[in-house]
Design goal:
single chain, mainly alpha, Rossmann fold, 5 helices, 2 strands, 53% helix
């Protein structure tokens, strides 16, 4: 999905929503599951950086075994990021 988002490919509802999202008004988070060797490949690193720099997407890295990050880690990242984005210390 990271490659689809970075490449502008919108072939399903999820990637279409991501491409149309107003990143200046609402933050967007992606928490993929991905094989560690794929996650660390130069191509994926480049595409991840494009998603972060150009689209403002916060990418939550998968675990060391390639599974999606734990819900508690995702929740914590979203909370911290939203506090900074919205500048509300107690949401």
């Amino acid at each position: 999905m990271v490659l689809q988002i970075a490449g502008g490919l919108s072939d399903d509802l999820l990637t279409e929503i991501v491409r149309l999202w107003d990143h200046n008004k609402k933050p967007l988070y992606v928490a993929p599951s991905m094989n560690p060797s794929v996650w660390n490949s130069p191509l994926i690193e480049q595409q991840r950086q494009k998603c972060v720099d150009e689209l403002g997407i916060t990418i939550i890295a998968p675990s060391d075994t390639g599974e999606m990050a734990e819900p508690s880690e995702i929740s914590y990242t979203v909370k911290i990021s939203n506090d900074q984005f919205w500048d509300y210390p107690y949401c």
